[in-house]
Amino acid sequence: MPAAVPPPRSVLNEVLQPAVIVGALGYFVDIYDLTLVSILRVPSLTDLGVPASELVNRGVSLLNWQMAGMLLGGIFFGVIGDRIGRLAVLFGSILLYSLANIANGFVTSFEAYLALRFIAGFGLAGELGGSVTLVAEVLSKERRAYGTALVATIGVMGAVVGGFVAELVHWRTSYFIGGGLGLALLFLRVSVAESGMFDRLKAAAPHVKRGDFLSLFTRWSRFSKYARCILIGLPSWFVVGVLVTFSPEFARALRISGEIKAAYAVSILYLGLTVGDLASGLLTQWLGSRRKVVLGFILLTVAGMAAYFLSADAGARWFYTVIFWLGAGIGYWAVFVTIGAEQFGTNLRSTVATTVPNFVRGAVVPITLGFQFCKDRFGLLPGAMIVGAVCVAVALWALHGLEETHGKDLDYLEPS
Fold it and tell me: Is the torsion defined by CA of 27, 28, 34, 35 positive or negative?
């Protein structure tokens, strides 16, 4: 008698499994901790004795040190994920950034603040790429976009919660809460199994070199593909690192009536990002295209930027609405990371998926430095417009040269 064919699993049964659920919760804690610098910039620096005239420059330094840590941590954890396993990344990264955030609640100097944000950034680097890699490999090719969309949608709510928590408790307590949430999540990670695709690779092809970061630069075709994966994410961190982090200063320059608080701005941005991530994930499934969705969301972001800079003399409600709009526009973040994971073979997938979002986050360093340069020469608003236009133009160019990966079979090796 022929073996009975099991009935097809429903979307919910396939998507709602431990790798996806715990990945979503991990990314929630990741985003909560990641955005604390922007949310707590003014109260924390003021409490440490930084004068008001230095809040922007010191805030840029804090953000840049955290992002520099993420840049290096992305390489480290990406390689670990391909050489040792996807779960090693998820355990190691959350332990490191949780301890760093708890220590951050005890700082008494700006220098210690900088050092701990670097360490926290190094740890934060592994969470998203590790989760997306694992989810992409455990779900079917027809439904993996649902899984990555769920991870991102729940994850970015961490910033919304972080903003509200910051209004209720002392800034040091916000850091303690972030660290405590991370340590609690470690116990849930025990229920998550390693990627079967990765285990098969280790067993069947032990001679294949895994996690070779430098191999991304040895062939022009491979490097070009890798670079384009990174560059399509630039508008996201221009919006986060410049327009929202320094939204109180932009609001004053635009003569916005009513107070604009960075904590509220970050929360509202990520509320929009939640909507955008869910919508972009669903649209890639319905349209059968990653590239079309990313293009549409970049154009939505451009429209949001235009509304932002044309908001002179508007009220605070309108300004916050535009920030929500910008959040929805950059809501292609999960699709962008998924594209990176889908472009490369199993022996390089974690390296790429973990480094790509962190190189984009690390790009906030040249973005903010470019913003400072243009601000000093052309003024606050024109300087931001110039940097934003460059980020969008580069992203559109990069997207044009990428292959479509929706429905692509991921069980293959990257040639050496």
Answer: positive
